[in-house]
Specification:
The protein is of the alpha+beta class and about 90 residues long. It contains three helices and two strands, in the order ββααα. It has helices at about 25-50, 50-60, 75-80; strands at about 5-10, 15-25.
């Protein structure tokens, strides 16, 4: 489902405040390259992890931290790329 958000900032060409409306598909396009780099890094670490530790990761999942971990669908993309199942979010605010 497409989501929309109004974002305020400074127009680079005019230097004046401006508000624009972004849709979620535009954000997906903008974030595709950095998210792909994160996924490649995770896969690289999993490939280098000793088999006895990978078993624990497969059983317990991967813990994501930081603001980027709140990106909608990032857990699904990492699970799909690594083959490590999604454990489910445990949100504590």
């Amino acid at each position: 489902e497409e989501k929309y958000m109004d974002v305020k900032g400074r127009c680079l060409s005019q230097g004046l405040p401006k508000a624009i409306r972004l849709c979620s598909s535009e954000m997906v396009t903008a974030l595709d390259e950095p998210v792909s780099a994160i996924i490649e890094a995770v896969c690289s670490v999993v490939e280098k992890t000793p088999p006895e530790l990978v078993g624990d990761v497969l059983a317990n999942g991967i813990v994501m931290t930081g603001g980027g971990s709140l990106l909608y669908g990032l857990d699904y993309r990492i699970a799909k790329a690594t083959g490590i199942k999604e454990i489910g979010a445990n949100w504590n605010y």
